[in-house]
Specification:
Blueprint (H helix, E strand, L loop, with lengths): L9 E5 L6 E2 L3 E4 L5 E8 L8 E9 L2 E7 L6 H11 L3 E6 L10 E17 L2 E17 L3
Amino acid sequence: MSLPDYQGIIVKAGADVASAVDVGDLLDLSAVKDKSRAVKRYNPINSDNQIVAAGALVQGAINMTVLYDPSASQGVNLLETAIDDNTEIIVIVEMKDSLGTNGTTITRTCRVTNFKVVGEQEGKYKAEVTIETVGTPAETAAA
Protein backbone atom coordinates (compact mmCIF):
# COMPACT_ATOMS: atom_id res chain seq x y z
CA MET A 1 0.00 0.00 0.00
CA SER A 2 1.45 3.35 -1.02
CA LEU A 3 1.15 6.50 1.04
CA PRO A 4 -0.78 9.48 -0.34
CA ASP A 5 1.32 12.10 -2.13
CA TYR A 6 0.75 15.50 -0.55
CA GLN A 7 3.83 17.11 -2.11
CA GLY A 8 2.79 20.53 -3.38
CA ILE A 9 -0.45 20.78 -1.39
CA ILE A 10 -0.84 24.12 0.36
CA VAL A 11 -2.64 24.42 3.71
CA LYS A 12 -3.40 27.85 5.15
CA ALA A 13 -5.20 29.05 8.29
CA GLY A 14 -6.50 32.41 9.44
CA ALA A 15 -9.35 34.47 10.84
CA ASP A 16 -10.64 34.94 7.27
CA VAL A 17 -9.64 34.00 3.72
CA ALA A 18 -7.74 37.24 3.09
CA SER A 19 -5.57 36.92 6.20
CA ALA A 20 -4.90 33.17 5.98
CA VAL A 21 -1.21 32.20 6.12
CA ASP A 22 0.63 28.98 5.41
CA VAL A 23 0.37 26.54 8.34
CA GLY A 24 4.10 25.85 8.08
CA ASP A 25 6.03 22.71 7.26
CA LEU A 26 3.32 20.09 6.84
CA LEU A 27 4.51 16.59 7.74
CA ASP A 28 1.19 14.73 7.49
CA LEU A 29 -2.40 15.37 6.43
CA SER A 30 -5.03 12.69 7.08
CA ALA A 31 -7.35 13.75 4.25
CA VAL A 32 -8.16 16.56 1.89
CA LYS A 33 -11.86 15.67 2.15
CA ASP A 34 -13.62 13.40 4.62
CA LYS A 35 -17.38 13.07 4.52
CA SER A 36 -19.88 10.31 5.18
CA ARG A 37 -23.52 9.50 5.77
CA ALA A 38 -24.91 7.20 8.42
CA VAL A 39 -26.78 4.27 6.89
CA LYS A 40 -29.82 2.50 8.26
CA ARG A 41 -30.77 -0.83 6.67
CA TYR A 42 -34.27 -2.26 6.89
CA ASN A 43 -35.09 -5.91 6.14
CA PRO A 44 -38.86 -6.25 5.79
CA ILE A 45 -40.14 -9.70 6.78
CA ASN A 46 -42.57 -9.75 3.85
CA SER A 47 -39.93 -9.10 1.16
CA ASP A 48 -36.48 -10.18 0.05
CA ASN A 49 -35.61 -6.57 -0.73
CA GLN A 50 -33.43 -4.64 1.66
CA ILE A 51 -34.20 -0.94 2.09
CA VAL A 52 -31.22 1.36 2.59
CA ALA A 53 -31.73 4.87 3.97
CA ALA A 54 -28.88 7.37 4.12
CA GLY A 55 -28.69 9.98 6.86
CA ALA A 56 -27.35 13.51 6.91
CA LEU A 57 -24.00 14.35 5.37
CA VAL A 58 -21.32 14.52 8.05
CA GLN A 59 -17.93 16.21 7.57
CA GLY A 60 -15.19 14.14 9.21
CA ALA A 61 -12.32 15.41 11.31
CA ILE A 62 -9.05 16.19 9.56
CA ASN A 63 -5.72 15.60 11.29
CA MET A 64 -2.42 17.22 10.39
CA THR A 65 1.10 17.24 11.76
CA VAL A 66 3.10 20.44 11.32
CA LEU A 67 6.55 21.51 12.48
CA TYR A 68 5.98 23.90 15.38
CA ASP A 69 7.88 26.92 16.60
CA PRO A 70 6.04 28.66 19.46
CA SER A 71 7.66 32.00 18.62
CA ALA A 72 6.68 31.93 14.92
CA SER A 73 3.65 33.55 13.29
CA GLN A 74 2.63 30.71 11.00
CA GLY A 75 -0.82 29.22 10.51
CA VAL A 76 -0.06 26.48 13.05
CA ASN A 77 0.29 29.19 15.70
CA LEU A 78 -3.12 30.57 14.67
CA LEU A 79 -4.58 27.07 15.06
CA GLU A 80 -3.20 26.98 18.60
CA THR A 81 -4.75 30.38 19.34
CA ALA A 82 -8.09 29.14 17.97
CA ILE A 83 -8.20 26.20 20.40
CA ASP A 84 -7.02 28.39 23.31
CA ASP A 85 -9.68 31.02 22.59
CA ASN A 86 -12.38 28.50 21.54
CA THR A 87 -12.93 30.38 18.26
CA GLU A 88 -13.62 29.30 14.71
CA ILE A 89 -10.83 29.54 12.15
CA ILE A 90 -10.70 29.33 8.36
CA VAL A 91 -8.60 26.48 6.94
CA ILE A 92 -7.85 26.43 3.22
CA VAL A 93 -6.44 23.43 1.36
CA GLU A 94 -5.17 24.02 -2.18
CA MET A 95 -4.50 20.89 -4.20
CA LYS A 96 -1.71 20.58 -6.73
CA ASP A 97 -3.96 20.27 -9.81
CA SER A 98 -3.36 23.85 -11.00
CA LEU A 99 -4.18 24.70 -14.59
CA GLY A 100 -1.77 27.64 -14.43
CA THR A 101 -3.17 29.95 -11.75
CA ASN A 102 -4.21 27.88 -8.73
CA GLY A 103 -5.26 24.37 -7.77
CA THR A 104 -8.65 23.22 -6.56
CA THR A 105 -9.28 25.05 -3.29
CA ILE A 106 -11.35 23.80 -0.37
CA THR A 107 -12.20 26.48 2.19
CA ARG A 108 -13.75 25.42 5.47
CA THR A 109 -14.71 27.09 8.72
CA CYS A 110 -13.36 24.92 11.54
CA ARG A 111 -13.04 24.38 15.23
CA VAL A 112 -9.71 23.08 16.46
CA THR A 113 -10.55 20.13 18.73
CA ASN A 114 -7.04 18.87 19.50
CA PHE A 115 -3.63 20.55 19.56
CA LYS A 116 -0.73 18.51 20.89
CA VAL A 117 2.97 19.39 20.73
CA VAL A 118 5.25 16.35 20.59
CA GLY A 119 8.94 15.51 20.06
CA GLU A 120 11.54 17.57 18.30
CA GLN A 121 12.56 17.35 14.63
CA GLU A 122 15.18 19.52 12.94
CA GLY A 123 15.22 21.99 15.82
CA LYS A 124 11.44 22.33 15.91
CA TYR A 125 8.71 20.46 17.69
CA LYS A 126 5.80 18.78 15.96
CA ALA A 127 2.21 19.90 16.49
CA GLU A 128 -0.51 17.31 15.96
CA VAL A 129 -3.73 19.15 15.16
CA THR A 130 -7.32 17.97 14.69
CA ILE A 131 -9.90 20.22 13.05
CA GLU A 132 -13.65 19.70 12.77
CA THR A 133 -15.52 21.38 9.92
CA VAL A 134 -18.42 23.67 10.81
CA GLY A 135 -21.01 23.68 8.03
CA THR A 136 -20.23 22.76 4.43
CA PRO A 137 -16.82 23.51 2.89
CA ALA A 138 -16.68 25.69 -0.23
CA GLU A 139 -14.83 24.18 -3.18
CA THR A 140 -13.39 26.23 -6.03
CA ALA A 141 -12.22 24.44 -9.17
CA ALA A 142 -8.63 24.66 -10.37
CA ALA A 143 -7.83 27.53 -12.72
